[in-house]
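Example 5.3 — OGFR factor
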Amino acid sequence: FPFRLFPLREHGMNWRARPLTCQEIQAFRKSKEVMDRFVRAYRLMLGFYGINLVNEKTGELERAENWRERFENLNRFSHNNLRITRILKCLGEMGYEDYQVHLVKFFLTETLVEETLPNVKRSALDYFLFTVRSKEKRRELVHYAWQHFRPQSGFVWGPRDKLQRYR
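Solution (predicted structure tokens):
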């Protein structure tokens, strides 16, 4: 069977790769070797995108030295956004919800605050945000996005009255 680096319980673009079962996910999560390989694969993909995993315990990220060149690639080729969405979903499946939060916040910061990834902005808001499994963390990220979105009146990813009252 063809396999994926970041498998999910749903079909992706490669219809020959079969979706994971819940039993397979549980078996993966119990295997130190599989989880170590998963984190190595995550580091590899982050490096491709110009991002470093600073802290393996928390999932904290920072720009890599080659970030300008890699961000240029991210801005130019939108197919990367599908891969990032897949990685985010897989992080959730494998129990790395904190990694999800850090990666989504990284992209929100780069798109809305630093404005280095303008062509990733819609994917970050439409897809990346909503892969985060924790409802509380997702709310925090939506609020963060709302705070930095310009013009704020154009923000459609959450109800304005709740965003204004948040916290």
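Remark. The two ends are 48 Å apart (CA to CA).
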